[in-house]
Amino acid sequence: MRTTVPRLAGVLLAVGSAVAITATAFAGDPSGGTALSPGSVAGPDIHPAGAASFHSALLSPLPIEGLTGDNHGFLYAPARAASGPCPVYRVPVRGGDPVVVGNLPAPCGPAGLAFGPDGRLYVGDGARIDVLTPDAANPPTATVFTDAVAGANGLAFDRRGQLWVSDGGTGAGRVWRIGPDGVPRIVFRVQPMVNEVNVTNGVGGIGRDPRSLPPGTVTITPNGRAAADTAGSQHIVANGLAFAPDGRTLFIADIARGAIWRVGIDSRGALRSPTGCDTTFSADTLCLDDVFVAHPALEGSDGIAVDRAGNVWAAANERNAIVVVTARGQVVEFFRNAPDAATRLRNTGPLEFPTSPFLAGRTLCVTSSDGSRRDNAPNTGGEASPTGTARAKISCLDQPLPVAGLTLPIR
User: Is residue 206 part of a domain?
Assistant: First the structure.
């Protein structure tokens, strides 16, 4: 069967270890980007071909997941220390020596982060949001902005300066909005994989529970693929958050379903999309009509970023891939690790369980947290290793993209 893949003008993208890119400048935008509203039929197209290369901007001795950047060519990532405070690294996009610009108080397990309109850095850390002003000369200890957002993961600021936070830890699908007062309010929920119907003593429910192999296993025979255990459950439905260029469209990455949800936000920060279609969920739960696109290539999508044309860039960590959803809803595999010639595994990089894409102008960067799941299992291949000197890394694409990322926070 022949598959036709959409094209992104000026780009040749690969399903493999390399991508050849021919940059096309767009009139009116010196950075090479173009501002289009989501759903526009104009703009760039993508098709696979050619070769790509990445460089490692940071090899971290500690685990990292979240990634953001400023307007001066620097990337920021918080590390997870087993004991003591968790450092926040700053490193140039082109690579170089990292510096510590702040610390998160222990116990800490940071995930997503974002700069606010006040210039401070906000970090999702368990059930709290920490905040600090980066300072390489005198690294500050973060203070607590709020401590009532269990599972805080994806962070994004809207045009009113309000912080949106996803519940990427508990699987409940909550998305909060937090104003300057630091009080979180649940605006909506992404439909969880399992509802509360048919629950006895906290066990039961109706829905489904997708699993990743590994760490789950199956018994493979000529006649079947029966589950051998119950490991590898994936229940997270609300993870990465990113606003579209219009500032009133919020995208949410759904790891478990392999989907991107799209909701409308009005000028006051209230939800415009429908909820309450399924009475077995909470009344504030999104309807399935709010799914922008669902596709197997998006399975494991963790963090997301949006460019100036309204394309959504997703890190499909369990597939060691970067996938693009165009503003028209077309799904294109931008890059995926090539399989090793001998083992046929895709765990040797350059992507090693990518989690948080960030578009620094026309440069695509992504963290690799080196989780031992699916395509990245076992996680002993590549530059990052659980027993090596590098536990995680930041990788940046060497070839420039034809569309620049949004200046964050959006204005």
Answer: no
The pair of structure tokens assigned to 321 is: 């891939």
* Long-range contacts, 194-201 (Cβ 8 Å, 24+): 194/235, 195/278, 195/280, 195/281, 196/280, 197/280
DSSP annotation string for 252-304: EEETTTTEEEEEEB-TTS-B-S-B-S-TTS-TTBBPGGGEEEE-GGGTTEEEE
CATH at 266: 2.120.10.30
At 148, the amino acid letter reads A
Helices of type H across 106-252: none
User: Using one digit for the tens of pLDDT, what is the confidence trace for 252-302?
Assistant: 999 999 999 999 999 889 999 999 999 999 999 999 999 999 999 999 999
CA dihedral angle for residue 134, residue 140, residue 145, residue 148, rounded to 10 degrees? 110
Domain count, the chain: 1
For residue 382, give Cα distances in angstroms to 269, 306, 349, 364, 391: 43, 28, 5, 20, 11
CA neighbor of 393 nearest in space, from 14, 32, 75 = 75
**Tens digits of residue pLDDT in 43-74:** 456 544 347 889 999 999 999 999 999 989 99
Q: Is the dihedral of CA 336, 338, 343, 349 positive or negative?
A: negative
CA pair distance 303, 319, nearest whole angstrom: 14
In angstroms, the CA 360 to CA 342 distance is 35
Residue owning tokens 């799904």? 331
Domain boundaries, position 248 = 54-193+213-219+232-397
- What whole-number distance in Å separates Cα of residue 15 and Cα of residue 13? 7
The pTM score is 0.89
Determine contact, residues 9/40, Cβ cutoff 8 Å.
no
Domain assignment of residue 203, yes or no: no
Residues 359-375: tens digit of each pLDDT: 999 999 999 999 999 99
Q: Is the dihedral of CA 189, 168, 130, 411 positive or negative?
A: negative
